[in-house]
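Researcher: I'd like a candidate sequence for this fold, 203 residues long. If you have to choose between options at a position, lean toward the conservative one.
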């Protein structure tokens, strides 16, 4: 039996690690200047932020297990990737491992969606989104294909940004730019959602 989870905990689990990463990245050097901790002297802000992200991600997974007795597949997959690439980043003191993470995650999403669509003829976006959108199978096929192309484009874009721009630019792009692009993409799909919408039984 699942325990009653506070309403604020869902968003905190989802966005808390990102907020912690951002806060540590921009505040770590100033904190160290004011309170130099010998064990952390010489640590890069990016490495410290990645470690903070890993810790808060693990805490979020723990809370999900405590309250829900299970972890949804997508957050679990994301947490595993964070631990793998975050761990490599911290262990080797090399930011490139974590910067490649979005590329690999987006590429996997694209392969799963497009592979499911063309090999198994299954629109795998439907099980994730059908609670929000009620559409015909044709609509789900179109939306799945477009999401697959979107993830490919985002994987390519992440590679371009982290390889050609400054570290701080990539951090801001990762936290804010990718979120804006996702929202813009979803809004751009509303003509498809409206066109293939199925009326609810009570409509």
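Model: Candidate sequence:
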């Amino acid at each position: 039996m699942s325990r009653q989870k506070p309403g604020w905990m869902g968003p905190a689990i989802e966005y808390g690690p990102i907020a912690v990463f951002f806060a540590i990245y921009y505040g770590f050097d100033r904190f160290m200047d004011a309170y130099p901790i010998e064990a952390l002297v010489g640590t890069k802000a990016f490495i410290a932020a990645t470690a903070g992200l890993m810790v808060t991600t693990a805490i979020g997974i723990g809370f999900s297990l405590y309250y829900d007795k299970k972890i949804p597949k997508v957050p679990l997959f994301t947490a595993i990737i964070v631990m793998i690439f975050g761990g490599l980043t911290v262990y080797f003191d090399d930011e490139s491992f974590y910067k490649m993470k979005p590329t690999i995650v987006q590429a996997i999403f694209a392969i799963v969606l497009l592979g499911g669509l063309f090999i198994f003829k299954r629109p795998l976006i439907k099980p994730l989104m059908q609670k929000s959108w009620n559409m015909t199978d044709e609509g789900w096929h179109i939306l799945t294909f477009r999401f697959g192309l979107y993830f490919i484009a985002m994987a390519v874009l992440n590679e371009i940004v982290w390889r050609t721009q400054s570290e701080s630019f990539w951090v801001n792009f990762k936290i804010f730019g990718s979120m804006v692009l996702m929202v813009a993409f979803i809004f751009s799909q509303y003509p498809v959602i409206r066109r293939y919408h199925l009326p609810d039984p009570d409509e």
